[in-house]
Amino acid sequence: MAACLPLAVVLVALVAATGASAHGYSQTPSPTPAPAAKCDKVMLKVEGMVYCQSCTHRNSWCLDGATPLPGAKVTVTCRDAKNRVMESRTPVADGNGYFLAEFDVAEKADYYKGDPAKACFVRLLASPDRKCDDLTNVNYGIEGAPLRHEGKRWSGKGYENVVYAARPLSFKPDTCAPRGHY
Predict the structure, then answer these.
(1) Residues 6+ apart with CB under 8 A from 161
(2) Quick one: average pLDDT of 154-172?
(3) Cβ atoms of 133 and 12 closer than 8 Å
(4) In the chain, what are the domains?
(5) Strand pairing partners for 120?
(6) pLDDT tens for each residue of 37-54
(7) d(Cα 177, Cα 182) in Å, to the nearest integer?
(8) Closest by alpha carbon to 145, among 165, 128, 127?
(9) Exposure pattern of 47-72 as b/e (b: 16+ CB <10 Å)?
(10) Are 139 and 168 in contact (CB under 8 A)?
Protein backbone atom coordinates (compact mmCIF):
# COMPACT_ATOMS: atom_id res chain seq x y z
CA MET A 1 0.00 0.00 0.00
CA ALA A 2 2.88 2.41 0.78
CA ALA A 3 4.11 2.02 -2.78
CA CYS A 4 0.93 3.76 -3.96
CA LEU A 5 1.43 6.91 -1.88
CA PRO A 6 2.23 10.03 -3.86
CA LEU A 7 5.91 11.11 -3.80
CA ALA A 8 5.09 14.36 -1.95
CA VAL A 9 3.55 12.44 0.95
CA VAL A 10 6.64 10.20 1.22
CA LEU A 11 8.95 13.25 1.26
CA VAL A 12 6.89 14.99 3.94
CA ALA A 13 6.99 11.83 6.05
CA LEU A 14 10.82 11.59 5.64
CA VAL A 15 11.28 15.26 6.53
CA ALA A 16 9.15 14.88 9.64
CA ALA A 17 11.00 11.73 10.70
CA THR A 18 14.48 13.30 10.38
CA GLY A 19 13.60 16.66 11.89
CA ALA A 20 14.59 18.56 8.75
CA SER A 21 12.59 21.38 7.23
CA ALA A 22 11.23 21.28 3.70
CA HIS A 23 14.32 23.19 2.56
CA GLY A 24 16.72 20.57 3.90
CA TYR A 25 17.82 22.46 7.00
CA SER A 26 17.84 20.81 10.37
CA GLN A 27 15.48 22.21 12.96
CA THR A 28 17.57 20.98 15.85
CA PRO A 29 21.01 22.48 16.32
CA SER A 30 23.80 20.15 15.32
CA PRO A 31 26.23 19.29 18.07
CA THR A 32 29.42 21.33 17.98
CA PRO A 33 32.50 19.22 17.37
CA ALA A 34 34.64 18.62 20.42
CA PRO A 35 37.93 20.50 20.33
CA ALA A 36 40.91 18.38 19.35
CA ALA A 37 42.70 16.95 22.33
CA LYS A 38 45.66 19.17 23.09
CA CYS A 39 48.77 17.33 24.14
CA ASP A 40 50.72 19.10 26.85
CA LYS A 41 53.54 16.57 26.63
CA VAL A 42 55.94 16.13 23.77
CA MET A 43 58.58 13.63 22.69
CA LEU A 44 61.13 15.61 20.71
CA LYS A 45 63.30 14.27 17.91
CA VAL A 46 65.89 16.37 16.06
CA GLU A 47 67.37 15.34 12.73
CA GLY A 48 69.89 16.73 10.28
CA MET A 49 72.80 16.13 7.96
CA VAL A 50 76.54 16.72 8.35
CA TYR A 51 78.80 17.22 5.34
CA CYS A 52 82.42 17.83 4.42
CA GLN A 53 82.49 21.00 2.36
CA SER A 54 84.36 20.86 -0.94
CA CYS A 55 87.58 22.83 -1.37
CA THR A 56 85.91 24.74 -4.21
CA HIS A 57 83.52 26.42 -1.78
CA ARG A 58 85.72 26.50 1.30
CA ASN A 59 85.13 29.56 3.52
CA SER A 60 81.63 30.14 2.15
CA TRP A 61 78.18 28.85 3.09
CA CYS A 62 77.85 26.95 -0.19
CA LEU A 63 77.48 23.17 0.09
CA ASP A 64 77.63 22.39 -3.65
CA GLY A 65 79.89 19.37 -4.08
CA ALA A 66 79.88 18.61 -0.34
CA THR A 67 80.01 14.95 0.69
CA PRO A 68 78.27 13.30 3.65
CA LEU A 69 80.47 12.90 6.71
CA PRO A 70 79.76 9.55 8.42
CA GLY A 71 80.67 9.40 12.09
CA ALA A 72 80.49 13.17 12.61
CA LYS A 73 79.27 14.20 16.05
CA VAL A 74 76.93 17.05 16.85
CA THR A 75 75.39 18.21 20.06
CA VAL A 76 71.70 19.02 20.40
CA THR A 77 71.00 21.25 23.39
CA CYS A 78 67.59 22.29 24.73
CA ARG A 79 66.93 25.08 27.23
CA ASP A 80 64.27 25.10 29.93
CA ALA A 81 61.65 27.72 30.72
CA LYS A 82 64.28 29.75 32.60
CA ASN A 83 66.70 29.60 29.63
CA ARG A 84 69.04 27.12 31.34
CA VAL A 85 70.34 23.93 29.74
CA MET A 86 67.61 21.35 30.22
CA GLU A 87 68.88 18.39 28.21
CA SER A 88 71.45 17.60 25.59
CA ARG A 89 72.23 14.71 23.27
CA THR A 90 75.31 13.86 21.20
CA PRO A 91 74.17 11.89 18.15
CA VAL A 92 76.62 10.45 15.64
CA ALA A 93 75.95 10.70 11.92
CA ASP A 94 75.31 7.43 10.10
CA GLY A 95 76.94 6.32 6.82
CA ASN A 96 74.94 8.93 4.92
CA GLY A 97 75.79 11.82 7.24
CA TYR A 98 72.31 11.72 8.84
CA PHE A 99 71.87 12.16 12.59
CA LEU A 100 68.85 11.77 14.86
CA ALA A 101 68.65 12.84 18.50
CA GLU A 102 65.72 11.62 20.60
CA PHE A 103 64.64 13.20 23.86
CA ASP A 104 62.46 11.89 26.67
CA VAL A 105 58.83 12.91 27.01
CA ALA A 106 58.56 16.34 28.64
CA GLU A 107 55.96 19.01 29.26
CA LYS A 108 55.88 21.62 26.48
CA ALA A 109 55.83 24.32 29.17
CA ASP A 110 59.20 23.04 30.44
CA TYR A 111 60.88 24.22 27.21
CA TYR A 112 62.04 27.81 26.73
CA LYS A 113 59.03 29.90 25.63
CA GLY A 114 56.99 26.67 25.66
CA ASP A 115 58.31 25.74 22.21
CA PRO A 116 60.99 23.08 21.62
CA ALA A 117 61.84 24.65 18.24
CA LYS A 118 62.83 27.88 20.02
CA ALA A 119 64.44 26.11 22.96
CA CYS A 120 66.80 23.75 21.10
CA PHE A 121 69.75 24.17 18.76
CA VAL A 122 72.43 22.02 17.10
CA ARG A 123 76.20 22.57 17.11
CA LEU A 124 79.01 20.75 15.38
CA LEU A 125 81.17 18.80 17.80
CA ALA A 126 83.71 16.51 16.12
CA SER A 127 84.66 15.03 12.78
CA PRO A 128 86.19 11.56 12.44
CA ASP A 129 87.99 12.59 9.24
CA ARG A 130 91.33 14.25 10.01
CA LYS A 131 91.38 15.74 6.50
CA CYS A 132 88.01 17.43 7.05
CA ASP A 133 87.76 18.49 10.67
CA ASP A 134 87.71 22.28 10.66
CA LEU A 135 84.44 23.70 11.95
CA THR A 136 82.36 25.98 9.75
CA ASN A 137 79.51 28.25 10.72
CA VAL A 138 77.45 27.10 7.73
CA ASN A 139 73.81 27.33 8.90
CA TYR A 140 75.19 28.40 12.30
CA GLY A 141 76.93 25.11 13.07
CA ILE A 142 79.28 26.89 15.50
CA GLU A 143 76.86 29.39 17.03
CA GLY A 144 73.93 26.98 17.25
CA ALA A 145 71.75 26.00 14.31
CA PRO A 146 68.07 26.77 14.92
CA LEU A 147 65.44 24.11 14.36
CA ARG A 148 62.68 24.24 11.81
CA HIS A 149 59.31 22.52 11.72
CA GLU A 150 59.20 19.61 9.30
CA GLY A 151 55.50 18.88 9.56
CA LYS A 152 56.32 15.50 11.08
CA ARG A 153 54.12 15.08 14.13
CA TRP A 154 51.76 12.46 15.44
CA SER A 155 50.03 11.76 18.74
CA GLY A 156 49.95 8.62 20.80
CA LYS A 157 50.26 7.33 24.34
CA GLY A 158 49.29 10.68 25.86
CA TYR A 159 51.98 12.79 24.19
CA GLU A 160 52.81 14.30 20.85
CA ASN A 161 55.79 13.09 18.80
CA VAL A 162 57.47 15.96 16.97
CA VAL A 163 60.42 15.86 14.58
CA TYR A 164 62.36 19.08 13.96
CA ALA A 165 65.35 19.51 11.66
CA ALA A 166 68.46 21.64 11.54
CA ARG A 167 69.68 22.88 8.18
CA PRO A 168 72.71 20.98 6.81
CA LEU A 169 75.90 21.51 8.80
CA SER A 170 79.44 21.19 7.54
CA PHE A 171 83.05 20.73 8.44
CA LYS A 172 85.70 21.91 5.94
CA PRO A 173 89.06 20.52 4.86
CA ASP A 174 91.98 21.95 6.79
CA THR A 175 94.11 22.11 3.65
CA CYS A 176 93.17 22.51 0.01
CA ALA A 177 95.28 22.61 -3.13
CA PRO A 178 95.98 26.12 -4.40
CA ARG A 179 93.45 27.40 -6.93
CA GLY A 180 95.83 29.30 -9.18
CA HIS A 181 99.15 28.47 -10.83
CA TYR A 182 102.20 30.25 -9.52
Answers:
(1) 42, 43, 45, 153, 154, 155
(2) 90
(3) no
(4) 41-172 (2.60.130)
(5) 78
(6) 466 888 899 999 999 999
(7) 12
(8) 165
(9) bbbbbbbbbebbeeeebeebebbbeb
(10) yes
